[in-house]
Amino acid sequence: MAKNINSVSFTILLVVLLVASTEILKTEAQTFCFECGPVPFLGTNADCFNCCKTKYGSPPVVSGVLEGSEKHCHCYC
């Protein structure tokens, strides 16, 4: 019984090390950081991203998305 527990523990340890070393669980989370342009923003998501890149630079800005009923251009870092 103890041999089986050691074998399972060793296997779990290897899986944890594999996940940690390959960053499988790492997410590409983006955080809201700025607003850009007038409200309502009359352009597209691509126009919003261009506004964000022009005003704040890239990096830190990685995307721009129109959100909300009033069409705010939100920049994400």
Can you walk me through this structure?
Keywords: Signal. Residues 1-29 form the signal peptide. This is Defensin-like protein 206. It comes from Raphanus sativus. This protein has 77 residues and is of the alpha+beta class. The protein has two helices and three strands, in the order αβαββ. It has helices at 2-22, 45-56; strands spanning 32-36, 63-67, 72-76. The protein has a three-stranded antiparallel beta sheet with strand order 1-3-2, covered by helices on one side. The longest helix is centred in the first third of the chain and has 21 residues, at 2-22. It starts with a helix and ends with a strand.
Q: What keyword list fits this structure?
A:
77 residues, 3 strands, 19% strand, signal, Defensin-like protein 206
C-alpha geometry:
elongated
- In terms of quaternary structure, the protein is single chain
Q: How many H/I helices?
A: 2
Helix coverage percent of residues?
Answer: 40-55%
Regions with pLDDT < 50 over 5+ consecutive residues? none
Strand order of the largest sheet: 1-3-2
Spell the H/E element sequence: HEHEE
Using the CA coordinates, give the radius of gyration: 22 Å
Tell me the β content. 15-25%
Indicate the mean pLDDT: 80
* Alpha-carbon distance between the two ends: 51 Å
Structural class: alpha+beta
The major beta sheet can be summarized as: 3 strands, antiparallel
Organism: Raphanus sativus (Radish)
Protein name: Defensin-like protein 206
Keywords: Signal
